[in-house]
Amino acid sequence: MTVVEDLGVDVSEEAREWEESSKLILQAKASSEAILRYGTNRWGEGFDPFVHDKRDKENVFGFDFSRVPTELLIQIPTVHVYGNRDPRFPASVTLAHFCEKSVRRTFDHGGGHDIPKRRDVRETMKELVEWCGMMADRH
Question: Contact at 8 Å (CB) between 124 and 107?
Fold first, then answer.
């Protein structure tokens, strides 16, 4: 949060609450006790990206992106892979929105705070990395 504040971006109380609560939830779900007790089932229900991301791009987990100057957006090609069952999903989606829309790709693998293992997901991730490399060559 301090980095974007240092750049002059207003950080709402809602954004601070998302940041803090998602960190605490991840700590609990990534604990040794949770891993031993629940294994991969510890991630539980996921975020509904259409509810939380709102798709209007004006309020993304408490950040009003209509007020973020475009010159502060990351202009290089980026790829963002996240899972909607990851407690840190809000931070991942927010980071993606700090990147220029025309040169970013996002992918929700549907899992938690883990590295996806399904073949179809790995294939999609491979294609995204290849796209990013191709786009970087153009820049």
Answer: yes
Domain enclosing residue 94, as ranges: 2-138
Give me the phi and psi of 18, to 5 degrees please: -60, -45
Cα distance between residue 133 and residue 121, in whole Å: 19
pLDDT digit string, tens, across residues 108-119: 999 999 888 899
Cα separation, 139 vs 137, in Å, equals 6
Domain total of the chain = 1
Which residue reads 């899992």 in tokens?
111
Angle at 68 between CA 61 and CA 1, to 5 degrees: 55
pTM (predicted TM-score): 0.84
Give pairs for 2-9: CB < 8 Å, separation 24+.
Answer: 4/72, 4/98, 7/72, 8/69, 8/72, 9/63, 9/67, 9/68, 9/72
Which pLDDT value is given to residue 138? 87
CA distance 27 to 92: 16
